[in-house]
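W.,

You were right to be curious about this one. When I first looked at the sequence I had no strong expectations either way, so I just let the prediction run and decided to look at it fresh. Below is the sequence, 205 residues in total, followed by the output.
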Amino acid sequence: MKFFYANGTCALGIHILLEETGAAYEPHRLDFAKQEQKSPGYLAINPKGKVPLFQFDDGSTLSEFQALATWLHLTHPDKRLLPADPLAAARAYELMDYTVGTVHSLGFSRISRPQNFSPVPESHEAVKAAGLATFEQGMAWLGSKASAEGFAVGDFSLADAALFYVEFWMAERLNKPLPGHLANHYARMKDRPSVQKVLKIQGFA
């Protein structure tokens, strides 16, 4: 299986889950600074022009954070990437979906790529400001919902990988303090061997 990613993107979370499961993968790093995600070769594989992406041996592909995380959980049930309790599992999805769909897509994306939200350069600072407000509000909500001890919903789960990548953006890219329980969660995550390995592979450790 090929794993397409770019350093420091949301693919960071899927990279962590790959290491947690021990799944065999062939890493393919895209350089976003060189717009490699928009190259003809990559668009032929993934017309979305996004990461992360899995390409299986038969040439078929799978994309989107929640889909990849769920596939890893279902193909590695022994790793228990979701709680057995139905409500706790739903809580993990609640955190993961809000992280990806709101905090990332409606918040940080406006900060990092305002041109995707407005073709008018003069409006980009306003777009960034709106994105920052959404991002900070979302992180505050996540900080209030994540467990004060342990991980997002108790034991390590899919939600923790999602939380980590937005925590990384806030702490390392925006240089802002993590709200609520996220600071302790971020520290616990950085102690995990999978996280340490991925940060090293992606050049952050």
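Here's what jumped out at me. The two ends are 26 Å apart (CA to CA). And, maybe more interesting for your project: DSSP finds eight helices and four strands in the chain.

Coffee later to discuss?

I.
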